[in-house]
Every structure is written in C-alpha cells, then in structure tokens.
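S.,

Sequence below, as promised.
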Amino acid sequence: MKRRTGGALLAAVAAATGLMSTAAVPAHGAVAATACVMREGSAHTDWTGMTWDADILCDNAPGDVRLQSFKDSPVVGRMVTTRSWFVCWKVGDPHAGGNNIWYYTQADEVVSRPTAQGWGYMPAVMLETPQDPVPGLPKCSWG
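The prediction came back faster than expected:
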C-alpha cells in the first residue's frame, strides 16, 4: 500500500477552506461524499525524482491511471482503493466530469511501463471533490 502524506502549507490552506472536515459535501454536484483531506507527513517522490511534501486524500472510483492527462494516453496503473492521495493537478483532455482537470497520483497496481512506477493521472470525474481543482492543491509544475 502507498504512503499517503501531506505538508504544512496545504494544512494551513485546508484549515482556512474547511477541507479538513469529514462532513459530507456534494461531489461534482451529484453524490454526497467525504470531503478531501489535506495531510501532513512523509514526502512523495515520483519516478522522475520530483518531490512533494503535501497531498490530498479523497474518495475516488477505482480506475485507470494514465501516463499523461489525455484520454488516449497509455494506462500505466490501476487505482483499486476508493480513498487515495493526489499531489497536484493539471489541465488535460475534457472528460465526462464536464471539465479538463486531471489529478497526479501513484496507482495501487502497475500495469505497464514499469519505469513510471504507476505514477500518472486520473480525470477529476473519478474523484469525489468539492470543486475542481481542489482549493489549495498545487498545479503540477510541468502543467
């Protein structure tokens, strides 16, 4: 199982925006969900050496994690858990959620391109978020 961690900056933003609450909030205007939680803890390092000292933990649907934020990008992993962490977001292809926001994470299972170690993107429609992008979560520096 992956470690799920966060940082002081996002914790402060979370406290200011109320995202640390576990109260039910609408997810994409449809289903009540547990709010995303910003957390402090160990840093994440992806397969390229990029590091983060913060993340969000959100309810999500199991599904594909893609190498890039495009619908036809190779699937590098699968998220099998239904509450997962995400370190940043970027703009990509529009998806069924009605926007073009994708969240960067590490999949629970690697299915291809083992050098990527399951790191990739899930479309926002797969996450139970109060809004997209989640307030306080940084935009990916390359996005």
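Helices lie at 8-17.

Coffee later?
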